[in-house]
Amino acid sequence: MIRPRFATAAWDRGLLAVVIIAVAMRLPYLTERSLWYDEASSWQTAIFSFPEMLRSVRLNVHMPLYYILLKGWMAVWGESVAALRGFSVVFGVLTVIGMDRFARELYRVSASGDDRESGGRGFGLVVAGLVAVSPFQVFGSIEARMYSLGTALVALSSWLLLRVLRQHGRGRLWWAYGATCIGLVYAHHYGLFSVAAQFLFLAFYLVWLFGLGARAEARALLTNSAAVGAVIAAVYLPGFALLRTQVGRVQQDYWIQELRWRSFWGTFSEFLVPTHGFDFLVAGWVVAAVAAVSCVVVAIRGRRGDGLVLASALVPMLLSAAISTVQPIWVARYFRFAHLFLLTAVALAVWKVTRPSSVPRSVLVVLLFAALFVANVLLWKYLDIPNGGGMRQAVATILKERRHDETIVTFDHHQYFTAKYYVGNKAPIRLLPPEGLFWGWHLIRPPDLITTAQLRAGLRRGVWVIDREPVPAWRPELTGAVPGRAYEFHYYMSLHRELYVQRFALPDLPPAQERSGP
Amino acid sequence: VALASSAGIWSAPRNPAAVVPTVPPAADSGLIDPARLKEEYHHDFRDNRYDHRWLLIEPSGPPSRLVKPDPRGLRIAIPAKVGGLGVGVFTRFGIHGDCEITTTFEVLTAEKPTTGVGVGPELYVRTVDGWSNYVSMYRWLTRDGDKPILGFASARKAEGKPYLDNRKNTMTAKAGRFRIVRVGPVVHYFVAEGTSDTFRELQQVEFVTKDFDRVRFMCQVNDAPSALDVLLKDLTIRAEGLPGWTGSVPQPKRFPWWIVVAAVSCVVALGVGLWWTAARKAQGVE
Questions:
Q1: How many angstroms separate the CA atoms of A294 and A353, rounded?
Q2: A140 phi, psi to nearest 5 deg
Q3: Alpha-carbon distance A58 to A238, whole Å?
Q4: What is the pTM of this model?
Q5: Is the ipTM of this complex over 0.85?
Q6: Is A419:A408 a contact under the CB 8 Å cutoff?
Q7: pLDDT recorded at residue B71
Q8: How many Å apart are CA B238 and CA A445, to the nearest integer?
Q9: Highest-confidence range of A81-95, B35-49, B182-196, by mean pLDDT?
Q10: Which among B13, B59, B267 has CB closest to A437?
């Protein structure tokens, strides 16, 4: 009796070690990294009053759950960068733990696994470890965005689904599963794809059971899954209405490019080194090849668990690609939920092809982790955070140099909300919206704006301009103003690689009556 | 579920009618050899037709709801006290070389402003150099004048100095057509008042040959609290080239049902395969 207890403790220590690694991978530059537009938009949405927040979400393209939870989190932990990103880190770590649980359960019902408890634990730790160190997952859980909430929920729902199937449909587990699915579809629109994948898997599993002649089990499964599915669908109805509202906006003015081969391969390169810019495109081919081979290996004579993994990895991609033929919705970072199962598929394939011997398995696992560590090094080197202070550094410089009556202005709403976050109440900051501004009105409110007349008035005292262009002196709003001190800051995000700050002021003219004649 | 819902989601808000123009574009100005105007964009907004593919609404926030397809044309109705610069649409593509831009509009309501520079529709064409480099035509009610003014302006920067040419006439007709023609560096302004097809040349000015990056039809209130209600009936752009434009006539995308059929076929085939395998297993064949 003592040995198993020691063994369990050792494996739990293993999970603890993985969790520590996961946390350690997510802490570097947590606060030094300047927020970027998407993160600042999360903050701005969450600080609205509740009705205003819902109105903003309706005009946005994302679901509300994350913003509601973030609002509650901010009420407790404040609005610091550490608090905003810490919220995502927590869900990132929960994802790691969830994937460990899921993989252990999966091991029992996969052609790559067996019934050994220790085998399942080892496999669970490897999958959890891959999630812990995967740069794509790491980056998803260090941004103040909803992705790690979604990954945690999809890991949990997948684990619960396998548990529910193993225990032949205990009622509470079914409802727990339904609740996580509802959370998932309200966390991100792509959560709908993941839930669709799970229900497609359930449908196939039902066919399998009926084919086997296990009619009683199949009928119980059908009853329970239909009931839970109906409840999920009913609870999702408001979300569906929201989706339809948002679709109109996506069609009208969203920025997603049509799905091309470049974005396809680029998505796989992002799975390895998520730079947001497809900067390691060749790596994408390798990752896609590894993923494809792994899926094939897992599919061959696969069992129940393998089916769930393949469905969860591939169905979201297929659905996204299909819909993108009409309306582009394919964005690499939206595949964070599916990516968890691609990692799992790779681990399953390694287990399957190395079944007779543990040595090659260990070698392959070490190689996988080595590749991911190298990818982490590449990513952080690429981001170059120490030299990419971005808006954080820009605002710090302005606050240090400005006179107390000088205003800060930006013409670019992408810069505005990050600047507003860092400026806080230390200085007035306003947005002069460019004509043709196509995005951001869900966040912009009248007090955020400055008119040209107000800007001209401000120029008499001095205005600090933040822009993506070096010298916006040609702008008609700045006509006659004298450019002053100028600074350039590097951003780590490919969306905002450079940031320019310059002071402008109208020259100190003598009063009109004292001017010399022409 | 997702496939079925996605079919509904993505097809429902689309306007299926935005296809064949019912009103042909206005005859060309005759200033340019028609053979040189190789590309032509024409959209008739009547019968609730809007061109999602090549036009964007500006601004896109809540004010974008003021733009609505209407049987009479694209209706841009700005209620009183809304303020702002205005609301309109602009092209997602630019213009290269010589060109001819024609639009038909009708002012349903325009309140005389108490502030700002004027209230009314404007056809504005911007060069790739940005907002300060443009040619435009407008019919505005101003706070000072009794009659609506017909303005035609151009602005550019040469050798670092800004040049602005803004001339004004009057236009009492509430409906009409604006036409801007560029031949080499010279821009010609034309107007056809009411329902007339006869264009009258107003002015020609020296401009630049640089590419335009957008054509915009804007209902401007210029921060005045006045109401403005305008119909944009059609827009025709003929040019040597339309960079960024890839279609002769905007065709609405149809939902690719073949994908749904293929997906359902795959699912059914997989299901049948599973059933067969399970049945064989149950019979102890394997």
A1: 10
A2: -65, -25
A3: 11
A4: 0.71
A5: no
A6: yes
A7: 85
A8: 39
A9: A81-95
A10: B59
